[in-house]
Each structure stands twice: as C-alpha cells, then as structure tokens.
Amino acid sequence: MRIYVIIVNYNKYIETIRAVESVLVSNMSDKYDLNILLIDNSESEDYFNYLSAYFFNKPGIFVLKNPKNLGFAKAVNIGINIALKDGFDYILLLNNDAYLDKNCLSKLIDFANQINEIGLLSPTIFYALDPNRVWSSGGYFDMFFSRIKMLLKNKIVSKEELCKTAPQFVDFISGCVMLIKKEIIEKVGLLDDRFFLYNEDLDYCLRVKSQGFKIAYVPSAFAFHEINIVKDRTNYFTMYHLAKSSVMLRKKHFSKLYYYYYLILHFFLFTPFRFFQIFKGSRSFKSVLFWLKGTLDGIRFKI
Q1: Residue pLDDT, tens place only, 73-130
Q2: Model pTM greater than 0.85?
Q3: Are residues 142 and 240 in the same domain?
Q4: Which of 20, 5, 8, 2 is nearest to 86 (CA)?
Q5: At what angle do helices 285-300 and 236-253 cross, to 10 degrees?
Q6: Rounded distance, CA 14 to CA 19, Å?
C-alpha cells in the first residue's frame, strides 16, 4: 500500500520539519510505502533552500518549489498529480503548522479499510498550545446559519474519553489533516483551485458527499494545530480570502435564493463578527477594507 503525504509550506521551516517528523515517527514506513511531498509556496527561496538541505538524501521525502504562492488548493493539486503518476492508495493532507500523534495515521487508515463507502477521514485536532482543547473535529452544515457546527469545537476533552468514542459520519472535516482515498480522486477529482485559500476543504466535502461517499471523523486519532485564531486569522490577507471564498462557496453549491439569504447573513452577522475579531487581534483598518474587498470579489466571481 502506497501513501503520499502532501504538506504545503508557506514561510515556515521549523514547524514544517516538525510536521514531517511527526509522520516519520508514526512507523507507517514499516507497513506501507510512505512518501512525503513538501511543496513550497513561499515567496523567498530561503525556506526551500533550508528544507531541501535539511531533508537532503532522506529517502521518501521530496521538496518542490513553486515560482510564487499559488494558493493552498493549487499546490495540493500539484502534489496529487505527482501521486497519480506514481500510483497511490491514500493521500494525507497535512498543514505545515500541524503535526500528528504517532498513532494518528494508522488509526485513520485502519478505519478507512473497514468501510468501502468512506472517502475522507480526519482525526480530532487539538490546539498545539492548549493540547487538551479541541480545535477541529467532525462537523455538520447548519443551513439556517450557513456555517459548519463542530461537534467539539473549543471544548476540553480527555483523550481517554475520545479513545472510547466510535467514529462518526459527518458533513465536514478540516483540510488541516485529511486522509483521502484513491477512489475519491478518481471519481470526484482534484481540489477546486479557484479557492485560493479557505473553504476548499468544505467545497471538497460537499462534492464528495454529492457523489455518495461518506466522510468520517475518527475521535481516537489525534493531531495538533499551532494556531492563534485572533492573531493568525485577522491580517488583511486572511480576511480577504476568508470573505471571498465564503461567498464563492455559497454561490457554487446552493440555489440563488439561498445564496441571497447567505449574503444577508454575511453582511449583518458574519461581517460584524469579523470586525470584532480584527479589532481584538490585528487592530488593522486595512483588514476591514480587505474583508469588504474579498466580499465584493466573491460576489463578482463567476462560478
């Protein structure tokens, strides 16, 4: 069985090395043909040069450089196309600021092998800086508020309790740590790279479910994500792409009536919330302007 792990790097190297090493210590290479693709989206070549030197001559680890930041989805698709040419059974998407518990990947694959209809799987993802608090778990799409409701979001949950909890079928799992079966790529296709950043995972989950496949959240598998929501997700770059991709997704997947309903929520519910986050975090008026610009560009976007 061949597994490809795809990690998109953006302006990091210490965290990226930690992500790679968390895969290596999983001991999966003893059971499977394990390959790791590091795809660098950084503007500076310094990160690529450092990572290339660090992993030089380490078998199964390949470092590639994009000419510029192509966005998360397009970079992932480059990795998937390489895996397609080489042959694979599973692809694991892993954020470069995330890392795996040593048993995470094996637990995901073990459950994936039990049920043919499963297409995507994800573990319980904790905050790295608060490792008992859940950042992401399986979620359901709430049509009324047009958002994902996470089962355990921001809750403190013991790992012992999660180990006793059975896997669940859900609407959504995060692309931060996402295991994808080969059949999904063959039947559903690649990520939609028109989503430069954010919501490409929700878009993919919606497409996978529409093809009759199941999405599984495996509570007993653990990963960790180094993120500070208020600080890391209130800069102008993030605000722009969050707004744009959120509007694009509703335009792509739902009826015109529901899309117009979402726009009301976007302007009168989500926008005030984002402004609150901005002034609590980055305190940058530029972020406010880019949220509004992203919203308008999403509305203008032709699906």
Answers
A1: 999 999 999 999 999 999 999 999 999 999 999 999 999 999 999 999 999 999 999 9
A2: yes
A3: no
A4: 2
A5: 20
A6: 9
